[in-house]
Amino acid sequence: MSATPVPPSLNDRLSGDIVPAHDPVLIREGDSYYSYSTGQNGRLPILARTSRDLVTWRALPGPIAAIPDWALAAVPGAKDIWAPDIAYANGRYRLYYSVSTFGKQRSVIGLLTSPTLDPAKPGYGWRDDGLVIASKDGDDYNAIDPNFARDRQGGQWLAMGSYWTGLKLARLDPATGKLAVPGAPLIPIARRAPGPNTAIEASFIVDHGGWYWLVASFDHCCRGAKSDYHLVIGRSRAITGPYVDRAGVAMRDGGGTVLLQADAAGKDRFRGPGHAGFLHDRDGRDYLIYHAYDRDRHGAATLRLARMRWSRDGWPALDN
Questions:
Q1: pTM for the full model?
Q2: Residues identified as active-site
Q3: pLDDT tens digit sequence for 206-251
Q4: How far, CA to CA in Å, does 298 sit from each of 24, 41, 62, 213, 295?
Q5: Beta-carbon count within 10 A of 146 CB
Q6: Pair type for strands 15-16 and 25-29
Q7: What is the pLDDT of residues 46-73, one digit of tens each?
Q8: 8 A C-beta contact, residue 245 and residue 251
Q9: By CB distance 3.0 to 4.6 Å, which of 8, 40, 185, 259 could disulfide with 20?
């Protein structure tokens, strides 16, 4: 008897505008899905795309035509906008974004808002609400890779950070989407263990099953098929942590359970999977969106999307 064929995964079926895609996030408005990602390949400063079925994607005009003047003044030499995050709050869509230069700590996170994501709808248009938080040389954090999160009491938070002393959390003012107390100490939520490799970034907080889950990216992106980026995860009963991995090691102390990683032997076509976003869809299904580098297309940063399922012990796994 022949084996039952394995149905193709969502990733196997993706088509259309899926390259380039770096640091993607995902949201749904009505019957359409929208994804935003780092500006690349002339699609600057923010790249946008849409789909009706999560399978076939088409390009959209970016939300704004250029990096805002205030951000360029704060970060001279910036060429594009990095790692946007999208959420809906207080009647408007919030698109948090970061502006920086590679390997530098002079960075800013800003905020765009719009009443709709659909360019064809009345009222569409993104308003730049300006600076949310900045970092400078000598700070113990880097103000990039924003992620908006809510707690179960209605509080709003922004996770962020890259390298240095790791990932941080700040409370937001729900009315403005900006810091509740500018200059207040940031809450540490994850960092790498002491040593020469401090590579951690791209936090995303998910609320599921009575836990808050922190997804982060370890190791190095942006090296094409040679990237060793991968996703790790931990959980906490409180949004402020401590987040711990399956072994009970706090992510503030270098912990993190691997969620997705290319094989060490180099056989996987898509290398360096990382910088994840999450969507809990209205039918109850959960999805993880991320990018990976396609070895068969000269390391092109490619949109990847997987169904996330939750095991009996509560931990997630991906239909990848």
A1: 0.97
A2: 23, 201
A3: 999 999 999 999 999 999 999 999 999 999 999 999 999 999 999 9
A4: 20, 14, 25, 33, 6
A5: 26
A6: unpaired
A7: 999 999 999 999 999 999 999 999 999 9
A8: yes
A9: 40
